[in-house]
Amino acid sequence: RKEVEQDPGPFNVPEGATVAFNCTYSNSASQSFFWYRQDCRKEPKLLMSVYSSGNEDGRFTAQLNRASQYISLLIRDSKLSDSATYLCVVKSLRLEDMRFGAGTRLTVKP
Amino acid sequence: NAGVTQTPKFQVLKTGQSMTLQCAQDMNHEYMSWYRQDPGMGLRLIHYSVGAGITDQGEVPNGYNVSRSTTEDFPLRLLSAAPSQTSVYFCASSSDRVSNQPQHFGDGTRLSIL
Questions:
Q1: What Cα–Cα distance (Å) separates residue B81 from each residue in A8, A23, A73, B59, B110?
Q2: What's the pLDDT at A1?
Q3: Residue A90 to residues A49, A71, B18, B24, B46: CA-CA distances in angstroms?
Q4: Which residues from A are below 8 Å from B when comparing CB atoms?
Q5: pLDDT in the model for residue A9
Q6: How far apart are the first and last CA of chain A?
Q7: What's the whole-number average pLDDT of chain A?
Q8: Smallest Cα–Cα separation from A85: which of A40, A18, A20?
C-alpha cells in the first residue's frame, strides 16, 4: 500500500468550475502536510501548506482531517493556468521522511 | 537567481554504462536530496545529505552513489545503468531539515537507459 494515495484523475473541468482533490495518508506520525503543483515536464513547486484548522490562499482552500488521515484541496473559479498535476505531500519530522503522492492531474478547458 | 541547477537535462545511456548527474545550489542550503519520479508513483528519495561530508540512503538507494564534498554540490552517480533506472531525476535543497521551509527543486534530468 502506498503511504500517500491520490486519485490520479484526470479531472477535466471548464473554466470557472470548482474542483476538489482528496488525499489519504497511512503514517499516523505525519506532522506536516503540503500541496505541491507540478506543471508538465517541470519540477514540483510548493502550492501551500495545510494546517490543522484549514487554510485558504486566494482561490485555494486546503483542509486536514487527522482522525481520518485525509487531506483535501479545493480550487474555486478554475483558471486555464490551474492546469497541472497536484501532489499531496506529508512529512513526519525530517525532510527525508517526506512522502509524495503520485499526483492528481487537472485540465481546465475554455 | 540560479537556485538549484541540474545537468544534463536529458541523457540516453546504454545498459552497463556509468554516469554522473550534477546538482548545484547557490542558496547555501545544508540539506540536499535526490529523488526519482516514475509514472504512477510519487517522488521517491534516493539519497540525501544534511551537510558537507555527510550523506545517507533514502527509500531507493540501490544502484546509486552520492558524495557531498562542498555545500554547493551534490552529484548522483549511476554505477552500472539498468533499464529500471529510466526515470526523471530531481535534485532538491532546503535550508532546514526539520522546519517546514520548502524544498527547492531543480528542473530535472530525464534519463533513458536502453
A1: 30, 34, 39, 18, 14
A2: 74
A3: 10, 10, 33, 26, 17
A4: 2, 4, 8, 32, 34, 41-46, 49, 87, 91, 93-96, 98-103
A5: 87
A6: 37
A7: 95
A8: A40
For B93, the grid coordinates are 535543497
- Cβ–Cβ of A42/B103 closer than 8 Å? no
CB–CB contact A98 B103 (8 Å): yes
Question: Is B10 an 8 Å CB contact of chain A?
Answer: no
Long-range CB contact pairs, A56-61, < 8 A, 24+: A60/A35
Q: Which cell is B19 given?
A: 554516469
Compute the average pLDDT of residues A52-76: 95
Which of A14, A37, A33 lies closest to A25, judged by CA?
A33
In this predicted structure, the answer to whether residue A89 has a pLDDT above a threshold of 90 is yes
Digit-coded pLDDT (tens) for B37-82: 999 889 999 999 999 999 999 999 999 999 999 999 999 999 999 9
Nine-digit cell string for A34: 503540503
pLDDT at B1: 63
CA dist B108 and B111 (Å) reads 9
| Chain B nearest-CA residue for A3 | B42
Q: Give the mean model confidence (pLDDT) for residues B29-42.
A: 94
CA distances from B113 to B11, B36, B69 (A): 9, 14, 28
Compute the C-alpha angle A85/A89/A91, nearest 5°.
Answer: 170
